[in-house]
Amino acid sequence: LTDEKMDETKKKKKKCCGYPISIFFIVVNEFCERFSYYGMRAVLVLYFRYFLLWDDDLATSIYHAFVALCYLTPILGAIIADSWLGKFKTIIYLSIVYAIGQVTMAVSTIHDITDANRDGTPDNFTFHIALSMLGLVLIALGTGGIKPCVAAFGGDQFQEHQSRQLNTFFSVFYLCINAGSLLSTLITPVLRAQEYGIHTQQQCYPLAFGVPAALMVVSLVVFISGSGMYIKTDPEGNIMWSVCKCIGFAIKNRFRHRSSRYPKREHWMDWADEKYDKLLIAQIKMVLKVLFLYIPLPMFWTLFDQKGSRWTLQATTMSGDFGAFILQPDQMQTVNPILILTLVPIMDRLIFPLIQKCGLNFSPLKRMTVGMLFAAMAFVAAALVQIEIDKTLPNFPSSSESQLKVVNIYNKTLNVQHTFKHTYFTLSADYMTLDHQNITVSLNTNPVITKAFSLIKGGRQTLIIPSNPTLMYLQEDVKSKPKEGKNSFPEGKKALYYLFCSFLKVGCEYYFILTLNPCLLESCCLTAVLLVSHLRRDFVLRHGEQWCEFSQKFGFGASYTFLIPSTVFSTDSKTEVEDMKPNSVHMALQIPQYFLITTGEVMFSVTGLQFSYSQAPKKQAGWLCTNAVGNIIVLIVAELGKLPKQWAEYVLFASLLVAVSIIFSIMAYFYTYIDPAEIEAQIRKEQGLEPEEKEKETLEMEEKDEGQKNDQEVKKNQDIRFVKIRLCWNMLIYTL
């Protein structure tokens, strides 16, 4: 025992600038862990959508299932830390699980592992899906398990007289969380946009997930490095198990005494007072009262967490060209942490005090109601943006229809004949939708050239009439917008160059070499399909000693056809056809919805945790559960709703939240605020604990006589426990 006390004393003496050296390891650990989590999460939904090739609904469902699991596992982490391993060992063991999960996730994104035919697409999607799901489960266990432990473990490193340093620590801790979140959300989408591959160049998801995995390993190593300097407390026992047993006994005892001959009790939990302490019963009553108020709250999180799924997918159909830089769709999420850092001090220091000075009773529950209404307005704004996007989207054919566009270089009037219709044109500006697949094309030449074609059901095709009309042919076009919100050209039979932007289709009449740095394409009377990444690209055509070059600017999400005639080297002429219009709705239009949802977050989430602590300070797990339930609601709606239009789903969520906010406001109106400290003091008085308090007050008065300095120190020591708890939960407010 003497040796242990000496070790603890040595650890307490190891300080730097008045702070325990151990907290520097904890701060760095938290920064790396938050970078790892938010960096992985930023690109997760696009990985599902464009690597695993899931549709929007399935990608959204799995994303929210993962987030829900991340908010359920903190309960498990708290139980393990308090009842079994203690905070230090819990952080170590679950961080190892966390790191393994991140590495597993990064490995699952390497397409070359199963790409045997080297076409850039994995041949065994089951392997990648199984590996990624295993990685996500391990990540959820890790990040959720250490969530309730790290901040509290940092607070354990301070002594009772270090209240000022403790306050500063939590401020720096909060800064590291936001810095890790902000930087990772900016950096990982850029890493994803890079090209990599042993055989084919693809989106660099391994790098986007690999860097967060490396940061998690660094986080673990840093935390272990400070092991010898930490103050480690033993497990104190988890109150959750005691609460569950107390509630179970109350229900069981109430059922036993359900007969009318037994006198009624004020609250059904009072049936547990035969076995359990009245103070514990009173605390459980407080918790249950708040939990009942929590019932409508998951709907807020249903909307809020969609900024990482539906809103990111919405950004893929928009233009990210800001002139000086190109914004990736998944980088729009950085608007949220930036606005958080801006709005929290504005709300705390300006808006809320101003409302209070105006004499308005803006209670915590009223703030939360207003926060929910702001979130509903955010989804109305998202619906308006989606309506504008839908106006620019092409009208694709149904499974029983075909679409045809005609590009005529021959420049003679054409007679395209099919059942019930005759059409004359030289060039069709848009696709014609046909309900019959068999058509006959007649050219008014001398002699007349007639040729029959069979169109593809549910497909888009271009009929190209070259300068030698006898060689007219059909070219299959893309049937969807280019991937991931960038510029692209239709993917065809020769996908010789694939990147993250625009499809380029080049039709030629004889052998030539097309140099598209860093790609070299050879083609002979075929259509080549390329994906190009930049808004402007330079092309070089070569044929023997002849060559020409041209430059073309592309739009986000566009599809183009370039028809190269045999006279290209002498006339420098080409025919450009825009098969699919570029994304014309700018990503900047998402900023209002991000502003509204972040304002709602500040009013709802921050205020909600403060309210929870003030009304039931012993239990906060229910708050995290509301987030988990909210994500489960998104999962259900995405899989079962199947609304034909995305804007309609946004309006549905907004309407549901407005309805829920009305219900919550009614519940809040009848809610009576309590003072937990006063209730606990009254119970202690009834249990005969008041003499001890009086004795403590007498001792304090005697100590005050020793001088003003000792008086302040006694008061500080008396309140330090409350200060630690209060600061801890203030930290969690901003963390969430």
Write the layout of secondary structure elements.
Layout lengths: L1 H12 L1 E2 L2 E2 L1 H21 L1 H7 L5 H53 L16 H32 L6 H30 L2 E2 L5 E2 L1 H21 L13 H18 L21 H17 L3 H7 L5 H6 L19 H23 L6 H29 L9 E7 L5 E5 L2 E5 L6 E3 L3 E6 L5 E6 L5 E6 L7 E5 L17 E3 L4 E7 L3 E5 L2 E5 L3 E6 L3 E8 L2 E8 L5 E6 L3 H4 L3 E6 L10 H25 L5 H20 L5 H24 L6 H11 L3 H15 L3 H28 L1
Parallel strand pairs: 5-11, 13-17, 14-20
Antiparallel strand pairs: 1-2, 3-4, 5-8, 6-7, 6-9, 9-10, 11-12, 14-17, 15-16, 15-18, 18-19, 20-21
Helix pairs in contact: 2-5, 2-6, 2-7, 3-4, 4-5, 4-7, 4-16, 6-7, 6-20, 9-18, 10-16, 10-17, 12-15, 13-15, 13-17, 15-20
Protein name: Solute carrier family 15 member 1a
Membrane topology: Multi-pass membrane protein
Keywords: Membrane, Peptide transport, Protein transport, Symport, Transmembrane, Transmembrane helix, Transport
* Low-confidence regions: 487-528, 691-736
Mean pLDDT: 79
Which strand order spans the largest sheet, edge to edge or round the barrel?
13-17-14-20-21
Please state the CA-atom Rg, rounded to the nearest Å: 33 Å
Oligomeric status: single chain
What percent strand? Answer: 5-15%
